[in-house]
Predict the 3D structure of the following.
Amino acid sequence: MTEQPARWSQATVHPDMWVDPDDDPRNTDGPSPDGELATLRDFLTGYRMTLRMKCEGLDAEELARRPIPPSTLSLLGLLRHLAETERDWLNWISEGEPLPSLYGEPDGDFDGAVAEPSEVDAAYAALTRAQAATDAALAGHPDLGERVGRNGIAVRELLVHMVEEYARHCGHADLLRECVDGRVGQ
């Protein structure tokens, strides 16, 4: 990378935010959710939205850009990786045969993230389907202590792991987005 983009934020109220509070779909007025299950789901929903927000407004080339060599990380790769990860979580919950990998070989999620609009559309569609499938499977298990799947993982452990995975990758998305076009904010 030879030229650094200028840092900027769309927010006008708080310059360290991604968007103004009134424009933030994650911003909910009122009390926080009651209970551990509702709290975990709320955090997961917020991080899922954050990842999508960090990718909004970019074209296929920008989403596929790998701005931090030698890393293969890109925003498009993160979308694909989290679709693959959601599928893995669904396999953890399932008693049946595991679903096959979405992107084949290890690192296929990042290596196959190419600057094609059809790849971007496919990545968003795969992520949406995978999230819906995971959520539907988890809806049948409201007891956080219940052990599910072939390996008997506790629902609580799975949800905490999901929040952790998205939170970590949202941090990557922060840095990648800033490298692509200079946009910053929580």
Remarks:
- The mean pLDDT is 93.
- The CA atoms of residues 80 and 109 lie 5 Å apart.
- Helices lie at 36-55, 60-64, 75-93, 108-111, 117-139, 155-181.
